[in-house]
Amino acid sequence: MTKSELRDLWASRVAEFKSSGKSVPVWCVANGVSIHQMRYWLRKEQTSASKAISWVPIDISNAGLQGFLLVRVGQVAVEVKPGFDPKLLLDVLRTLAVL
């Protein structure tokens, strides 16, 4: 089984577990799944969800911009000036999101 297939299998199992309303031990016994494996995949899913990138809409119509936009990711600020390279900005933001 490939890593992708394994991830899909466990995503399906986690979804089934969450929709069941049962506790981890009860669901695992009923479905022949190791409790330790289920807890591992639940932690993995939680970690992946916390790393998800979310975009926030901004309204700059009345922001009084002074020729640049300041983007903050955590404690890092990126100044974006007119004529910027969108691909470069996207690469920088992706890199910052991983940190």
Low-confidence stretches: none
Indicate the mean pLDDT: 82
Domain module count: 2
Q: Structural class per helix/strand content?
A: mainly alpha
Give the % helix: 55-70%
Strand arrangement, largest sheet?
Answer: 1-2
Total count of strands: 2
What fraction strand?
5-15%
Topology as a string of helices (H) and strands (E): HHHEEH
**Cα gyration radius (Å):** 21 Å
The end-to-end distance, rounded to whole angstroms, is: 31 Å
How many strands, which pairing sense, and closed or not: the largest β-sheet? 2 strands, antiparallel
- Which of globular, elongated, flat, extended, rod-shaped describes the shape? elongated
Number of contiguous helices: 4
Commentary on this structure:
This protein has 99 residues and is mainly alpha-helical. Helix content is 56%, strand content 10%. The protein is elongated. It folds into two domains: 48 residues; 30 residues, no CATH class. 1% of the residues are buried.
